[in-house]
Amino acid sequence: MTIEDRRDREKQQMKELILQAAAHIIVTDGYDMLSIRKIASQIEYSPAIIYHYFNNKDEILNQILLQGYENLMSALTESHTLAGSPETRLKYLTRKYIDTALENPDQFLAVQLNKSSQVQNFTSYLFEGAADEKPALKILAKSIEEICAGQNVTDGEIEMTAQIIAASTLGFITKLIIEQDISAQRRKQLIDRFTETVVRMASLKMEAQPINSVMKRKGTI
Amino acid sequence: MTIEDRRDREKQQMKELILQAAAHIIVTDGYDMLSIRKIASQIEYSPAIIYHYFNNKDEILNQILLQGYENLMSALTESHTLAGSPETRLKYLTRKYIDTALENPDQFLAVQLNKSSQVQNFTSYLFEGAADEKPALKILAKSIEEICAGQNVTDGEIEMTAQIIAASTLGFITKLIIEQDISAQRRKQLIDRFTETVVRMASLKMEAQPINSVMKRKGTI
Amino acid sequence: MTIEDRRDREKQQMKELILQAAAHIIVTDGYDMLSIRKIASQIEYSPAIIYHYFNNKDEILNQILLQGYENLMSALTESHTLAGSPETRLKYLTRKYIDTALENPDQFLAVQLNKSSQVQNFTSYLFEGAADEKPALKILAKSIEEICAGQNVTDGEIEMTAQIIAASTLGFITKLIIEQDISAQRRKQLIDRFTETVVRMASLKMEAQPINSVMKRKGTI
Amino acid sequence: MTIEDRRDREKQQMKELILQAAAHIIVTDGYDMLSIRKIASQIEYSPAIIYHYFNNKDEILNQILLQGYENLMSALTESHTLAGSPETRLKYLTRKYIDTALENPDQFLAVQLNKSSQVQNFTSYLFEGAADEKPALKILAKSIEEICAGQNVTDGEIEMTAQIIAASTLGFITKLIIEQDISAQRRKQLIDRFTETVVRMASLKMEAQPINSVMKRKGTI
DNA sequence: AATGAATGAGATTTCATTCAT
DNA sequence: GATGAATGAAATCTCATTCAT
User: Nearest nucleotide, C1' to the C-alpha of B34?
Assistant: First the structure.
């Protein structure tokens, strides 16, 4: 079996090499500059051999997207087991997610903004009951739940809040990636602020008090 | 002059026809599947005639992007002059923005997720001082400012909050567009919730009270 | 008839306008950059109208070539009636030809290097008997004949010499046009030298005592 | 290594095939009628494969031009080492040059009449000092120098004479190529005459007593 | 396992030309 | 007389993919 094993291992290594090259091209030249020829020339093989390891271009793309998704997921699951107040943990979770996303920005966008149902199977989370199916959303919902513990909040409310926070974070990261001229300092500032805002988004029942200040301002009281 | 007028009108109609076809292709097949050939075959003309109305492919793309942007902007400016409490107005603003975006979903994404510096000139708003330069952000910041009136909030804080809300809204809309299986009802629910969340994001100094509940829960008090 | 006359005149003017524009494009952008569209945009008319005056692109080209040829020819015929020794006249003739060619360099090359039999009908002169048919060659042959007067030279020899001088001059002018970096001064130097060389080429029997005979004829001896 | 060798050889053959086809098109249809499509259909391959052997159209063109130039140059260098009187050698040189040019007439014209600075780098020779830089001109100048040996002739005069002879020869060959109806016999006659004329062009000081000096040198006197 | 050769389809763009108005 | 609209053909070039070796 050892011969077969080695063969398998080598095959896997080659597949990985191809995927890395492809990912690099996406990151460097953009998503739609990816071509089999470019991959081939990067790994210094002939284009034809690539078809020995993948059936077609789409298969390569999907693999990359999948990898990116798994990357993000592991970052999340890893960080949600931490100690501390739920607020702190939510902040950390958010920050971890943002950081991980920014490590492979183009891959992140490629995955998260992908419409193909194949990818959507992984990335969709707006539907009702998503908190039960999607691990990442479940983690997020858990955090929110803890923050709102003791208050009268339904699971549905928590789920929707999780969804909205997730979508907002996606938007925030997207903008950070797309606007390329932002300084590192500014970026840090914005991320700090965003994590705080996320906590506020998660504090569901806070409407009770704030209203006062509003009414005061309006002279109602 | 009527002859010239008619010609102008017809030319304008043809341009519009081309733009619509192009937008439709972007919607259907994705942004980088747009080709002059496809446009031509969709409008059932020869590819060459398209160059009679536009100088090149980029000109068509830019027109689409510009139209989308202007569309959104006019929706915003139109709605920010309304009466009512600042919270109500912010909600309305948000909702209007979402609705307008969803009217031309793919065009919206094509614009807002476009990295080209040409488009970024219009759509970027994360940089420091953006609230002074970008009309849309200015409107948003104004709303936030009113909501926080009487509290000790710096312009910088307001700007960042506006930026975060804007980015979050982008993310929310993006998800609504990308996840195509969401029912109209669910969508409505989510939008309602999102507008409320936005108000909470805008209420900067509300930390005062909520913290109590947190402390209570933790047994600190 | 006056109305028709005016129409004819106007039509002729328009044809001339088109030809000038075309010639200008050839001179400026090169021979194979000529296009109906370019002509049209230069005269600020629509491409279609050009077909009102010419049947097709080739007709325009041929007209230009013809004009260029006639231009050269008139320069020659004009200058061969001058007084002076035949050597001087030959020099002047040569110089005049060169100068005229250099006034419209691209047109000159376009005509003289054109292979189409239509153009060749005008420009060919290497065949036996050309000195009888081709006015320009006849003029040249006349000069040579005078230079060799009194010597035993056949008409055939004279014709061939004329042909060789003509071809050589073509080569010389061609190089002057093609090598664009030559200074005006160098050019002048070369032209001076060339005209002298042409005289030497024309002095057929000089092997015997060339200079003497020339001097004698001039009365120097 | 034989496999690789064979591949290389086949690749070289294919390149040659393409170049020949291209040259043939230039010959037949003219320089600016050359198109990748035409080449492909001539060799009965698909247009795309041509890009497997050449990067682009220009590369093909340049190869053709270069080949033509080198062809001519080797003809010259080969023939200038011959024995005999300088006059004989000059005649032979001239004739060899003409013959070689006429072997690939269109290629010759394509090279020699090409204005692109890339080609001009090879073919230009009218500038001052060209006799030092351009091998072909140097050879020619050498012949002239020998012919004028013992006379008071400056290097500058010799260079200019060489330049004028070269240009004249270009013109002569050009006409031979362009005028397609000339009989082989006539052509021979003209070439004979031209080579003699070239010797006369090269005999700079013959105004004094040319023949004598020549005779002297030849030991006739 | 790996490659070079080959292709068909398709991309953008330019052009000469026609035609109804 | 003049024009805008329209087209078909052709240009260069890139790409994903197949296949014999």
Answer: E11
- The domain containing residue C17 runs over which residues? 1-54
More confident residue, A26 or C52: C52
Instruction: Choose from B121, B204, B217, B218 for mutation: most chain A CBs within 10 A.
Output: B217
Residues D109, D44: one domain? Answer: no
Residues C138 and C67 in one domain: yes
Q: Which of residues 120-149 of B touch A (CB under 8 A)?
A: 120, 124-128, 147, 149
pLDDT at residue number A212: 39
Residue C11, domain CATH: 1.10.10.60
pLDDT of C61 over the 70 cut: yes
Same-domain check for residues C109 and C154: yes
Asked whether residue A215 is assigned to any structural domain, the reply reads no
C3-21 as b/e, with b when 16 or more CB fall inside 10 Å?
A: eeeeeeeeeeebbeebbeb
* pLDDT higher than 50, residue B220: no
A165 and A90, same structural domain? yes
Strand E closer than 7 Å to the CB of B62? no
- CB atoms D124 and C179 under 8 Å: yes
Instruction: Indicate the residue among C39, C54, C69 that finishes a domain.
Output: C54
Is D215 a domain residue?
no
Instruction: Let me know whether B18 and B66 are in one domain.
Output: no
- pTM, whole model, 2 decimals? 0.75
What are B135-158's pLDDT values in tens digits?
999 999 999 999 998 888 999 999
Look at residue A122 and tell me whether its pLDDT is greater than 90.
no
CATH number at A108 reads 1.10.357.10
The 10s digit of each residue's pLDDT in D150-189 is: 888 999 999 999 999 999 999 999 999 999 899 999 999 9
